[in-house]
Amino acid sequence: MADPADLSQHPSAQSYQKPPQSPKRTLLLYQQDPTLRTHTTHIQSIQPFTTLASDHQTLFKTGTPSHHVVITASTIFCAQGGGQPSDTGLMHGTSSSPRCSFSVESTRYGSHGQIFHFGHFLPPPSSSSSTATTANNSAPMFTVGEEVSQTIDSPKRDLHARIHTAGHILGLAVRHLRQMGTIPDDVRERKAMHYPDSAFVEFNGLIDGRHKEAIQAKADELVAAQIPVLVHFWSEAEMEERCAMPFDPALKAQAGEGDGDGRGSLLRAVEVQGVGAYPCGGTPTVDTGSCGLVVRRVSRQKGVSRVSYQVVEV
Fold this sequence. Notes:
The protein is of the alpha+beta class and about 325 residues long. It has helices spanning about 10-15, 30, 55, 155-180, 210-225, 235-240, 250-255; strands at about 25-30, 40-50, 70, 75, 90-95, 100-110, 115-120, 145-150, 190-195, 200-205, 230-235, 265-270, 275-280, 295-300, 305-310. It has seven helices and 15 strands. α4 (about 155-180) crosses α5.
């Protein structure tokens, strides 16, 4: 008798046939043009969540036997990484009848430069359909090679972009104050989290709480200047020379390394023009003007300082 906890025994898993070879790298259009909100591409792979390798299943904490992972040739869905949450949205078949729809709940970096679009197929408007279906015939599914349209949740993307760019502004404000001698010279940025309600930038070294107002003032100055935010593709040597924090080779996938960005071995950086750049695989704003932020608090523990912030309307 099959173990009821064994997801491989679910009908959708039993009907799945693994493709003869892994799909190609996903072209990361959101890294080339973060302003895209809709896009047309083709399906490379459809896989029930239950058939994913165990290390891939752990990427999606809410996975159930009804979930699937879809890989497309290219994508505008920003994958979770570098402290930024993933995009959500919809994919629709452009020619299937009835229209096949897939709700994208999360996107993550998979294997071999592929982006996993995690979600579920939406029920059909009627039960009569020649479209390929899941094993329990509950919803029509895409077919490999099918053309689909992608649409991201624009308000959510805009919020994520503002929070992420505001984190860069905050880090650069601290860097400026360090260079001016206001903040100790040993303070160095180490990591950041750009999530709504839990955004912060961490630094090695101690930042006294009395510097909160100075950090806020410099950040306000950078926002008010409406400085353009630019995307670059640089060599690893250029990243190490030009970026405000050390480039970690382990983050190459998030920074856009390889064929996924269509630019060979170049790596992606985001620059607040003339102020500083970061290795970055996320989605920045066009300029700093929409990234008003409030420094909430400066905390210190075991030689590490955390500057928490939130974005506000300007």
